[in-house]
Description:
With 205 residues, the protein is an alpha+beta fold.
Amino acid sequence: MRMKSFAIVAALALSTAIAGCSTIGSQIFTNNYGPMTDAGYQLPRIPIEKVPFKYRRQVVSYDTDEKPGTIVVDTQNKFLYYVMGGGEAMRYGIGVGREGFEWRGTARIAVKREWPTWTPPSAMIKRQPELAKFAGGMDPGLTNPLGARALYLFNKGGDSGYRLHGSPEWNSIGKAMSSGCIRLMNQDIIDLYDRTSVGAKVIVL
């Protein structure tokens, strides 16, 4: 009888974990990457089954002295943490700067934009002359490198030139491919955008 009761409890625990997409200490949002309409744009489904499990949006245990609302970017492990308090954070997989474009420091979110215009900096145009046609800005859209949202990072010197932004290139998450900006999957940057406030602290490790 005791074994039967244990089996029932175990089965219930397993079914609950599967239904809630959760694991011990975390909640996984695997089902949140489907197609969606946003500001008139039709974002396609992300083939999340092709994205490593660890890079999918999830609530994790996170011990920090930083106050809720702070963003901590772990460039080495390709994670971005949004501190929620209570020893937890929302964790997102990210793409980071390739070799020679890494950076670290503390900044704040000064501007938030939905479906932003992308303007390549002059140094990038010099490296890639084919981008000169976008010197006046690339219109928002599904192929825009900033994706569905952008959070503009400023420091004591003003605009750092770096952004936390979406990207149509979901397969770049977990890799070092950018020119220094931190990129997220579009569905993830929309989620992060809705959580963050102008003035929020951003720490890049």
